[in-house]
Amino acid sequence: MSAFASIAVDLRMRTKGFETDAGRAERIARKKAQRIERSMKRAARSFAVGFGGAAVGIAAFGKSMGSAVRITKEFQVAMAEVSTLLNDKSGMAKMTKETRELAKQFGTSHLIQAKARYQAISGGVSDLREQMELLTAANKLAVGGLATVEEATRGLLAVMNSYGDVVGSAENVADAFFVTMKKGITTIPEIVQSIGGVAGIASQTGVEFEELLAIFGAGTRVSKSAANTMDALRGVLAAIAKSSSQANNEMALLNKEMGTDIEFSIRGMQDAGGLFPYLAQIKELVGGSQASISQLFGRVEAMNLIFQIMGEGFTDTKDILEELEKRAGQTNMAFSTMMDTPQKKIDIFKATMADLGIDLATSFVNNFGEFAKSVAKNIQLIIDAFEILIKTLAIVFGAKGIAAIWKWARTLAAAVG
Asked: How confident is the model at residue 261 (pLDDT cuts 50, 70, 90)?
C-alpha cells in the first residue's frame, strides 16, 4: 500500500465518526424542524379559529355600528328639519330628548317620531307641552288602533284645528274615534285618513264634532264604506253651505206645497237644532223625490245614502251619540291591550336598543375625527415601525422563517375568510 493510500484510509477512519455524527445531527435537526412546522400549523389553525370567531364578532359589531350610524343620521336630519320650523331654537335639546323618549315608550323608530313632531309643529302646535300631549295621544291612537303615528297625528290635528278648544284634548278626540270605530263598520286608519276632508266644512257649518262622528259611524253600517260615507257627508254640507239659487227655488216650491217654512242654508240647519234633525226635516219634505233631491244637493247618490242613514241608521246614530257622551278612557283601554302583546314588547326592546345605538354612534362619530387626525399626523411613524418589525423578523427567522410566517398568514387568512 502506498503512502498516499495509507493516508487516505487513515483519513476516512478519522472522519467516519464525524460523518456519522453529522448525519445524526442532520436527521435530528430535520425531525425538530418538522415538529416545529407541525406546531406552527397547529398554532396557526388554533389562532385562525379564534381569530375567525373574533372576526365574526368584529363583523357583527361593525354591522351594528353601521346600523346605529344610519339610524342616528336619519334621526338627526329629521330633527334638523324640525328646527327649520322654529324661530327660537333654544328648545331643540329638550325636544330631541322628548322625541327619543317617545320612540322608546311606544316602540317605534326615532325617525317616525321626528316626522310626527314635524307634523305637529307645522300643524300649528308650537308649545312644547301641547306637542307632547298631541304626540302622546297620537301614539296611543296608533298603537291601539293599528294605524301609523303619521296618520294618527294628521287625523287628530285635522279635528283640533277645525274645532279648536271645543273638542278638548287630543286624547278626548282619540276616545271619540274609538267609539266610532266600535259602533260603526270602520277602522281607526279609515277614520283618521278621511276625517280631514270633512272636519273643516263641518265646523264651519256648525255641525258638532260628536254629531259628525255619529252620522258617519251610522253611515258606515249602511254603506259598508267609510270613504263613501265621508264623501256623502262632505257633499251634503257643501251644498247646504253654498245654498245655490237653484236649491233655494226648489225649497220655496216644497215649502209652498207642504205649508212649511224651512230655509235651505246653514242658518236653517242651526234653526233645526243640528245636521241630523235638519236632514230629517228635508227627508220628510222631499218625500223621496229624486228630482227634488237633485235640485237641492246636486248629488243624488250621496243624498240617497244620507237618507238611508236617516232611515236605517236613525237608531244607530242616536246610539253612537249616547256612547260618545261617555267615551273617556277608550283610547287607554285599546292602548293597554295592544301594549301587552309579545310583538309590542319586542318593538319596545328594539327601540330601546336603537336609542342606545344613537348614543354610541354619536360618541363614535364625534371621536372618530380626532382618531383619524392622529393617524394622519403619525402615519410615517406607523410605517417606520412596520418596516422595523419586518426587518426584525428577517434577522430572527431568516428568509425561510419569513416564508413560514407568510405561509402561516395565508393559512390564517383562508381560515378567516
From this structure: very high
Q: Which three cell numbers stand for residue 381?
A: 411613524
CB-based contacts of 132, cutoff 8 Å, min separation 6 = 98
| pLDDT tier, 51 (very low <50, low <70, confident <90, very high otherwise) | very low
Number of helices (H), then strands (E), in the chain: 19, 0
Range in 44-58, 329-343, 378-392, 402-416 with the lowest mean pLDDT: 44-58
Contact 173, 156 (CB under 8 A): yes
CA–CA distance, 407 with 93 (Å, rounded to integer): 56
| CA proximity to 318, closest of 190, 170, 217 | 217
SS3 state at 224: coil
| Residues in CB range of 16: below 8 A, 6 or more apart | none
Predicted pLDDT at 139 = 97
Mean pLDDT of the chain: 81
Distance in angstroms (rounded) separating the CA atoms of residues 389 and 394: 9
pLDDT value at position 7? 43
CA–CA dist 329, 367 (Å, integer): 48
120/156 Cα distance (integer angstroms)? 10
**C-alpha span between 182 and 189 (Å, rounded):** 13
- Provide long-range contacts, Cβ within 8 A and 24+ apart, for 370-378: none
d(CA 62, CA 243): 67
pLDDT at 260 exceeding the cut of 50:
yes
Distances (CA, A) of 259 to 142, 262, 268, 284, 357: 51, 10, 16, 13, 75
Which phi and psi angles does 148 have, rounded to 5°?
Answer: -85, 155
What backbone torsions phi and psi does residue 302 show, to the nearest 5 degrees? Answer: -65, -45
Q: What's the pLDDT at 47?
A: 44
Q: Which residues contact 156 (CB under 8 A, 6 or more apart)?
A: 134, 137, 138, 141, 170, 173, 174, 192
Average pLDDT of the segment spanning 105-123: 96
Note the pLDDT of residue 297.
85
Core vs surface per residue 98-131: b (16+ CB within 10 A) or e: bbbebbbebbbbbbbbbbbbbbbbebebeeeeeb
